[in-house]
Each structure stands twice: as C-alpha cells, then as structure tokens.
Amino acid sequence: MRVIKDTYARVNGVIQADKAVISDGCKALVIKDVATKLDEYFELKNLPEMTVVYEKGIYRVKLEFDAERVKKFNVLR
Q1: Are 46 and 77 in contact (CB under 8 A)?
Q2: d(Cα 21, Cα 10) in Å, to the nearest integer?
Q3: What angle do CA 71, 49, 64 make, to 5 degrees?
Q4: What is the pTM of this model?
Q5: DSSP helix/strand/coil, 67
Q6: Residue 56 region, left (φ>0) first, then alpha (ψ -120 to 50), else beta?
Q7: Which of 59, 63, 3 lies closest to 33, judged by CA?
Q8: Which of 12, 26, 38, 77 is deepest in the core (most CB within 10 A)?
Q9: pLDDT at 1
Q10: Each residue's pLDDT tens digit, 51-77
C-alpha cells in the first residue's frame, strides 16, 4: 500500500508541475525581487505570497503580503 501512495504522490507532483503556469524557481525569483522593492516602502512581516493563474487568455497574478508598518518617505518634485 505504501508503494501505491508513494507512486501516487510522485505522479500527482508531476501532473501539478505540468499544469503550473510558472516554475517554482521563477516564482521564487519574482517574489524575491518584489520583496526587495516593497521593502523600500513597507516593513515586511514575511515574504509576499504570489499566485499566477491563466484565465481566458490572460495571466491573473495575485500578490499578498503583510507589513508591520509603512515607511515614511519624501516625494521628490
């Protein structure tokens, strides 16, 4: 029974990876870059979370993060 569960988990992982819109490596890189930029404006509590879904010919990207505070900055004119 354990062999069946292990095989199922492996096959399911391959199927999910094939369905992925963006690779895990690419997603990690985007999150790191976005977190670096967001850190200029916010004190981040943790890394942002990102989901990417392909719907009706467009990519829907959702980004969510928690911040401890908004940093103060001056607007240049």
Answers
A1: no
A2: 19
A3: 55
A4: 0.65
A5: strand
A6: left
A7: 63
A8: 38
A9: 63
A10: 988 888 888 899 999 999 999 877 777
CA dist 3 to 9, 11, 13, 14, 17, Å? 10, 12, 15, 17, 21
Domain spans, the chain: 22-77
Q: What is the pLDDT of residues 3-20, one digit of tens each?
A: 666 666 665 565 555 556
Owner of token pair 């999150």: 31
Q: Which two tokens stand for residue 8?
A: 């199922």
Name the one residue in this structure whose structure tokens are 């990519």. 59
User: Residue 33 and residue 6: Cα distance in Å, rounded?
Assistant: 35
Residues present in the chain in total: 77
